[in-house]
Amino acid sequence: MPAASSRSVCVLGLGLIGGSLLRRLAGTRATFGYNRSTATVDAAAADGYDVSSDLMQTLARAREEDAVIVLATPATALGVMIDAVAEHAPACLVTDVVSVKEEVARIVAARHPDARYVGGHPMAGTAHSGWDATDPDLFTDAMWMVTTHDDTDADDWLTVARIAREAGSYVVPAANDAHDRAAAAISHNPHLTAAVTAAVGAGESRLPLRLAAGSFRDGTRVAGTAPDLQRAMLEANSVALLNTLSETIDRLVSARDRLRDHGDVAAIVEAGHRARMAYEEVASGEVEPIVGVTVGHPGWAQELRRQAHQARVWVG
Fold first, then answer.
1. What is the pTM of this model?
2. pLDDT at 1 over 50
3. Distance between CA atoms of residues 2 and 69, nearest Å
4. Is 93 helix (H, G, I), strand (E, B) or coil?
5. Structural domain boundaries of the chain?
6. What are the pLDDT digits (tens) for 8-38?
7. Regarding beta strands 170-174 and 143-147, do their DSSP bridges make them parallel or antiparallel, or are they unpaired?
8. Domain 9-174+287-308 classification at class level
9. Is 180-284 a domain of CATH 1.10.3660.10?
10. Strand partners, 93
11. Integer Cα distance of 292 and 281 in angstroms
């Protein structure tokens, strides 16, 4: 784990992800935050954290301290936040923890074209939200995508990657579009299938809910996330999600037709089983680090991405 940095971090948004990051980093470096809700700010302050409900004041401090600004609001609120950063702390390095990357990059480019921006997305969370749900250990051993393009500034990339490492995560270098396609497949599409499973299972009688056990519980967990938060996440990644949703529908239709015409569902069950076994192999195996790359040397970004596609991670 890299040594703690003396550079401040300013977290804008103190919900589950932003609040958990504030709590984690407060033990390693100067960290302060903002939230629009005074109730959230009061709760965080009561727990001993340096927070404010005054956005302009918070950004003025970020400018004075040359803090790294972390955008941790829903995608629907990003425009206003980026406008404020552009006006009050334009030279600060900006990153984010939003679950889509192409849309965030577009918003930043349109509203703060001179921004020093390196995107990020920690693959961590629960079905709960708000300050009361925050957990400084939320990111421990999680995967944290950090935007890695050929024109990404090496020093800025390292700064963001080291924040992820200080939070306890492994860094997964990726291009924005590749991230969004992957997130649609392994995060956003499961939200939709969980919603469908929950709705079908509930039905018109409460009998199925009384009988429901592990399959229903595990398969519908993310459907318990606040609907507004789900919509903000899913709709922001609509293009990639449409593609994975179309594939899902095609596979289900094929399974339905096979079951109707031949009485079996072997193909879809076997394909799913193979995929689950592949996931368990990656998830339970030893984490393999990216090797032979010095960030900033010629071709560093391309090589980081190449090795990330082999399931390797950057550990510094």
1. 0.88
2. no
3. 20
4. strand
5. 9-174+287-308, 180-284
6. 999 999 999 999 999 999 988 999 999 999 9
7. parallel
8. alpha beta
9. yes
10. 116
11. 24
